[in-house]
Design brief:
single chain, Rossmann fold, 3 domains, seven-stranded mixed sheet, seven-stranded parallel sheet, about 40% helix, disordered N terminus, disordered C terminus, oxidoreductase activity, Oxidoreductase, Gfo/Idh/MocA_oxidoreduct, Gfo/Idh/MocA-like_OxRdtase_N
């Protein structure tokens, strides 16, 4: 019989209250802390994390929680009923075994472990010590799963299961935290759809589970067939598919169930559905279930003001109850192990795809006449890199994180370095021109200080130290002061109130000023390029000043005849590449725009080609002005002491003088034999 929790708890505990500890105090661990607060009979008493700021954030949630710098120190100092492990996946196995050795039941965030043998060993050790193991599969306790399990017997013998998950990768994290590269993000979420499929297969049919086939492409899409007994299910996880969805569809001989984990709804079609009246009414019945279910789900989230993941507190409560009552863990050890096995297979296939992609994208060594490009993995940066390759220029891209193999451009050398902390001299070896296109695009003032201003200073100092004389600082049109009727030219004054438009504009504007001052001081020739709103006419995404998309409705602001300051990203890339070879012909300051600016009507036509079902509503400026006043007042009341963002200014339409860029575009396009995308559309 498994040891009672009371036997190994310190004396003085009140009643049957469980003592809970966290290893890791990051953002996900903070979700754990909030969920633990919602679990009766459990108390978070300690946390282990080397970061003082992370411990401080945790004390903001649980004021009396004890902080330890290491898990070893925490586990040696106190005894706990349950230890939650919320650290990077590579550390899960060793920390799980450490907590088991200390006599604690364990909850390990997903992915449980990276290797099957580690998972097997943990489960065996837990069984030998009569301790329970749980993992981060809270979808089992979300509303859609509860409804699915309620109606699963009603659909009869299961014939098919489909588990689908599409998601958008995270490119920026608050506080400057390092973001996982795309394929690693895929592996991070993969256990969710895998475990859900295996859970339903276990409920539906007896037998052994087998991975029948697996295909992983290098762009991050997984296709798998998983069989248990006589039932085969399909698993699809993709970084590319849109819209973002997460669902489980179970088809039986007497109906089907569709559980939607994005909207937290379940639609069911129970019965054979073969008669004419069934075929007629079924769509209306399911549409009503979707409408009513989505409305109820959103209302629950709003009124509950839930700050932890749905299902997390419910899973914790079930696990804690199992600990108290000596019952089995709410997660099946067999399925937990099979989940790790399938995820490990996917990771192995991704690794093989990575090796193939790396071989195909072999870099060209930068020995001389090279271009150092920051921000080269971004929207503009990739276009610049491709244009430089056409010109035969060796390229070294410096990035804050290692790009996925399929994100790399063949022939380009990639170096991982955070230039906000300094620019190593090796970055500039063989370089004659620097294009500094990297900048912070999210976060607050500290992030923009570090990743925009500090990075600019470090890149200029590094350039000067290495003898690099050509430096292009990529700025933004947003740094320019509002015009007073006359078209805005390349030498237009900068915005006098740099903080008035938020951290992004402040970071860009002050970086531009800093680049010019440092360049003059250090003897580096600095040229400022301010691209307009970047657009890709082949895969059109509307610029912010055009308006706002709300579902299937686009609210366009202003007049259809207004011309917007945009630039085709391919043209912008060619222009910056051209500058590296024509330094003397390039102006010191340039507003990089399409030579002929498109009207809002023309941009909306582009948008409608990509979205034929889109409805466009126009918001005239006469209506925008009072809305902007109200929004400014609300910001001042809700955020006293912080700058208010002027919506009328954000959506203002400025007139630009494109004479210089139009003249230079003839040279740029003449050198490549290409036209500006807007001119040719």
């Amino acid at each position: 019989m498994r040891r009672s929790v009371i036997e190994h708890n310190p004396s003085g505990r009140q009643g049957n209250e469980l003592r809970v500890a966290l290893i890791g105090a990051g953002r996900h661990a903070q979700h754990h802390a909030r969920a633990i607060l919602r679990c009766p009979g459990a108390k978070l008493v300690a946390v282990a994390d080397p970061s003082d700021s992370a411990q401080s954030a945790m004390r903001g949630i649980v004021s009396d929680v004890k902080g330890y710098g290491t898990p070893e120190g925490m586990l040696a100092a106190e005894r706990f009923d349950v230890v939650h492990i919320c650290t990077p996946p590579a550390s899960h196995a060793s920390l799980a075994r450490m907590a088991l050795t200390a006599g604690s039941h364990i909850y390990v965030e997903k992915p449980f472990t990276e290797r099957t043998e580690d998972a097997q060993r943990i489960l065996e050790e837990a069984q030998a010590k009569k301790l329970l193991v749980c993992a981060g599969h809270q979808l089992l306790y979300e509303g859609p799963t509860t409804v699915l399990e309620q109606y699963l017997p009603s659909i009869g013998e299961v014939a098919h299961i489909e588990s689908y998950f599409s998601f958008r990768t995270v490119r920026h994290a608050p506080g400057g935290r390092k973001v996982l590269r795309a394929d690693h993000q895929l592996l991070d979420i993969l256990p969710h759809p895998v475990y859900m499929m295996l859970h339903v297969l276990e409920r539906a049919v007896r037998g052994q589970t087998a991975l029948v086939s697996l295909e992983v492409n290098q762009a991050g899409t997984v296709h798998a067939l998983i069989r248990r007994g006589s039932v085969t299910g399909t698993l699809v996880v993709t970084l590319e598919g849109r819209p973002v969805e997460s669902y489980l569809r179970v088809v039986g001989k007497n109906g089907s169930i569709f559980s939607d984990y994005v909207r937290s709804t379940t639609q069911r079609a129970i019965g054979p559905g073969s008669s004419g009246i069934d075929k007629l009414l079924a769509p209306y019945r399911q549409a009503w279930q979707l409408l009513a279910g989505t409305t109820a789900s959103m209302a629950r989230r709003f009124f509950k003001q839930q700050r932890s993941y749905p299902g997390l507190a419910e899973l914790f409560s079930a696990f804690y109850q199992a600990v108290r009552s000596n019952a089995p863990s709410p997660l099946s050890p067999e399925i937990l192990l099979e989940t790790v096995r399938i995820c490990e297979r996917v990771a192995e296939d991704l690794k093989r795809a990575e090796m193939r992609a790396l071989a195909a994208a072999a870099p060209r060594s930068v020995e001389s006449h090279g271009v150092l490009l920051t921000g080269g993995t971004g929207f503009l940066g990739r276009s610049v890199a491709q244009a430089l390759l056409v010109r035969g220029r060796p390229i070294r891209i410096v990035a804050r994180r290692e790009p996925s193999p399929w994100e790399r451009i063949g022939g380009v050398e990639y170096v991982v370095s955070d230039v906000s902390h300094g620019a190593d001299a090796q970055l500039f070896k063989g370089i004659d021109t620097v294009i500094h296109a990297a900048a912070e695009t999210a976060g607050g003032w500290e992030e923009h200080q570090r990743n925009s201003l500090d990075a600019t200073a470090n890149m200029l100092k590094g350039s000067a130290g290495a003898g690099v004389k050509q430096f292009i600082q990529v700025s933004s049109l947003a740094v320019l002061a509002q015009g007073k009727g006359d078209p805005i030219g390349d030498s237009h004054p900068l915005e006098p109130n740099s903080r008035g438009s938020g951290p992004y504009v402040w970071g860009k504007l002050e970086s531009e000023r800093l680049a010019m001052a440092l360049g003059q001081e250090l003897g580096v020739s600095v040229k400022i390029v301010r691209p307009g709103a970047l657009v890709d006419y082949s895969q059109f995404d509307p610029p912010g000043r055009l308006g706002k998309r709300l579902g299937n409705v686009f609210v366009a602001v202003g007049s259809s005849s207004d011309r917007l300051g945009v630039v085709d990203v391919e043209f912008a890339g060619r222009f910056l590449a051209w500058m590296t070879d024509h330094w003397q012909d390039s102006p010191s300051h340039l507003n990089l725009l399409d030579p002929v600016l498109p009207t809002k009507r023309e941009l909306l036509e582009q948008l409608r080609r990509m979205n034929p079902d889109l409805t466009v509503l126009w918001l005239p400026r006469i209506v925008l002005l009072p809305l902007s006043w109200c929004a400014t007042l609300a910001q001042k009341l809700l955020r006293p002491g912080k700058p208010a963002i002027n919506l009328a200014k954000v959506f203002s339409v400025l007139q630009y003088d494109t004479a210089t860029v139009a003249l230079l575009a003839k040279q740029v396009n003449g050198a490549t034999g290409q036209k500006d995308a807007h001119e040719g559309s």
